[in-house]
């Protein structure tokens, strides 16, 4: 039905992994990833709409004029299935390109431009970028071990350099897909920061329960069964994780040496 969109399969041929067994495992990983993501998104969007509506009721007491939070809550209530569908389609699309030639990370695009280019960016849009980028960074820190283990296991399945593998369900990809899904709706700009904060607290923080079973499925089929222990003993096995950090992260660290 329109209120319960089917999990998107996405166009294009199935991805062929290194062996026939690994091709089946990869299909299982994609199916389970999308199905569990869909199951998690349904209650999340219900709770999100309620949260934004609650904010709107508090704002209404202070200001009887325009109430963008109320408008946003109505959009979320009516359009949550469509927003979730759009997010799932984006993530399904990531599964069709597991080793992209270029870094299409929209959350980092602002750090690549010159100062002149940065001056052309809408300030509110840049604030939204910072909010969702903080969410992605939070998730990366919280789920570092699970994310690296999944990435390394996926690399084995497709016989690729793990440093070139883009995990379709990585925190950063989920944040990009969430931001993309919201863009299609006419959600008032002033509400987006509250939406991103709620996404960080009530969705991204809980992803350990999402990544754990996916790692277990691959481990139980003999794909790097001891990789978590190896990462814990040796440190990150991905060279990109051993690099010093992103420029904007270093800037933030320089500004706030202690908390």
Features:
259 residues; mainly alpha; disordered N terminus; disordered C terminus
The count of helical stretches stands at 11
Q: Judging from the principal axes of the Cα atoms, what is the shape?
A: elongated
Fraction in beta strands:
under 5%
Oligomer: single chain
Total strands: 0
Mean pLDDT across residues: 84
**N-to-C CA distance:** 50 Å
Give the low-confidence spans. Answer: 1-13, 244-259
Largest sheet entry: none
What is the rounded Rg? 20 Å
Structural class: mainly alpha
Helix content: 55-70%
H/E series: HHHHHHHHHHH
Characterise the protein shown here:
The protein is mainly alpha-helical and 259 residues long. Helix content is 65%, strand content 0%. It is built from eleven helices and no strands. The protein has helices at residues 20-62, 68-94, 115-119, 123-142, 144-158, 171-183, 192-202, 208-220, 227-234, 239-242, 247-255. Helix 1 (20-62) packs across helix 7 and helix 4 runs antiparallel to helix 6 (171-183). The longest helix is centred in the first third of the chain and has 43 residues, at 20-62.
């Amino acid at each position: 039905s329109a209120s319960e969109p089917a999990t998107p399969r996405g166009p294009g041929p199935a991805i062929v992994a290194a062996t026939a067994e690994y091709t089946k495992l990869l299909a299982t990983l994609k199916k389970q990833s999308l199905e569990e993501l869909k199951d998690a998104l349904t209650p999340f969007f219900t709770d999100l709409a309620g949260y934004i509506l609650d904010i709107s009721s508090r704002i209404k007491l202070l200001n009887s004029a325009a109430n963008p939070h109320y408008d946003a809550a109505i959009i979320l209530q009516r359009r949550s299935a469509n927003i979730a569908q759009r997010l799932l389609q984006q993530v399904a699309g990531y599964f069709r390109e597991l080793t992209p030639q270029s870094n299409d990370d929209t959350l980092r695009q602002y750090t690549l431009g010159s100062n002149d280019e940065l001056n052309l960016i809408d300030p509110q849009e840049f604030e939204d970028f910072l909010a969702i980028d903080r969410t992605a960074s939070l998730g990366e820190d919280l789920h570092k071990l699970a994310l690296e283990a999944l990435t390394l296991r996926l690399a084995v399945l497709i016989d690729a350099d793990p440093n070139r593998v883009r995990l379709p369900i990585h925190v950063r990809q989920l944040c990009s897909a969430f931001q993309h899904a919201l863009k299609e709706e006419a959600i008032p700009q002033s509400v987006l920061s509250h939406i991103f904060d709620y996404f960080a607290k009530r969705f991204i923080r809980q992803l350990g329960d999402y990544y754990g079973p996916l790692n277990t499925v691959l481990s139980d089929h003999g794909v790097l069964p001891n990789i978590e222990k190896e990462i814990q003993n040796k440190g990150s096995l991905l060279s990109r994780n051993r690099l010093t950090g992103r420029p904007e992260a270093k800037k933030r660290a320089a500004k706030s040496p202690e908390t």
